[in-house]
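A quick aside before the break. I want you to see a complete sequence-to-structure record at least once, exactly as it would be stored in a machine-readable document. Don't worry about memorizing anything.
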Amino acid sequence: MTHGRLHPLVGMLAICAAAVLTGATLLLAIRECGADASQPVLARLGARRDPFTGRHHAPGEAAIRRVLAQIEGDLLDRAVGSWLSVRCLQTGLLFPGAAQAIEIKRHRVNRRTGKISIKTVRAVTSLAAEQATPPSSHP
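That is the input. The structure line, written in tokens, reads:
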């Protein structure tokens, strides 16, 4: 059952991608990530804008589920890959203005089962290393 809210497909996919990049693995986590995003972030991701209030709104879990169930994953992967390759050829860089990229891998061991899980987080920033490093608290 729809509540009559139409979310732009590109905005929904961008919110889902951003949530997954921050570690969301469940639909509920994707929805929560979108709901927690600031107005400027939702605007940049292409979230639906309420014409009366001017506020941007992330889609709910049911809307995300419906859209992701209907998306052809291989086709989306090819489309995104083509777009990225064109951007790389045009600019010579995948991320213009990027000064550094980081990758953090967190290893966790479940104490009950002994199972090891690995979570990877990647980020790109325009800050130089000295700008991104917190100041030392040592005198």
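Two observations worth writing down. Helices lie at 9-21, 27-36, 39-45, 61-70, 73-91, 129-132. The beta strands are 48-49, 56-57, 100-109, 116-125. We'll return to this after the break.
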